[in-house]
Amino acid sequence: MEQEMTSMPRIGDMAPDFKAMTTQGEIQFSEYIKGSWTILFSHPADFTPVCTTEMSGFAVLEDDFKAMDTKLMGLSIDSIHSHIAWVHNVKEKMGILMKFPIIADIDMKVSKLYGMLQPGESETAAVRAVFFIDPKGKIRLIMYYPLNVGRSMDEIIRVLQALQAADLHKVALPLNWRPGDMAIVPPPKTVGEMEERVKSNYEMVDFYLAKKNI
Fold first, then answer.
1. Could you tell me if 36 and 135 are in contact, meaning their C-beta atoms sit under 8 angstroms apart?
2. Which residues contact 1 (CB under 8 A, 6 or more apart)?
3. Residue 157 CB neighbour total at 10 angstroms
């Protein structure tokens, strides 16, 4: 069921559903994301330099995202014809094919639904938003970048790995965490748990900050 939202989605919200035309045909978002992680990201416009570097970056790493059970979907306020022409141009000039679907949001419906249009930056171009959505359809992390600053693919992959590791091992991740680093064990909730922790083999900074390998 499609939703109307008057405010931007927040972390912990269910991802708003929509139906849209994309470079891979018409897609119902709730069906597309079902059962896997999804990264939904917007760019200001086709045939622009920063956007070309970013979208190419996602395309180059698409197999890496698939290996992490993660689908990609892009968006800009352009027509499907513009998208197809741009995809063709990037393949021709750079040898990179954007196989993931790109939403043709010419009516700005999805951009408004996801708070990608921010008037202080632009009323007609989506900011560089990134939404991380888990297999249950919940928004887990949101990034916003202005029109003139490109995103970090390293950070996008890092936080995806962190979200997945935190869910799998029921832990929290410290500053600059990377796969292979120690994770933070949730703090004790009772005196008994605190005393057990003191006796544990965790790496202890103090009773409230303990780390373990995952």
1. yes
2. 17
3. 17
Burial of 81 (0-12, 13-18, 19+ CB in 10 A): exposed
> Which structural domains are found in the chain, ordered by start?
19-150 (3.40.30.10), 170-212 (3.30.1020.10)
User: From CA 200, how far away is CA 89, in angstroms rounded?
Assistant: 58
Contacts of 38 (CB under 8 A, 6+ apart): 15, 32, 70, 71, 72, 73, 132, 133
Residue 157 near residue 66, CB atoms below 8 Å: no
Helix (H, G, I), strand (E, B) or coil at 27: strand
What residues are labeled active site? Answer: 51
Q: What is the mean pLDDT of each run of 10 residues along the chain (214 residues)?
A: 61 97 97 97 89 92 97 94 96 96 94 86 77 98 90 96 97 96 92 87 88 93
The closest alpha carbon to 83, from 94, 71, 68, 98, belongs to 98
| Beta strand segments in the chain, E | 19-22, 25-28, 37-42, 70-76, 102-104, 128-133, 139-145, 183-184, 203-206, 209-212
Read off the tokens for 69. 């059970």
Are the CB atoms for 197 and 188 separated by under 8 Å? yes
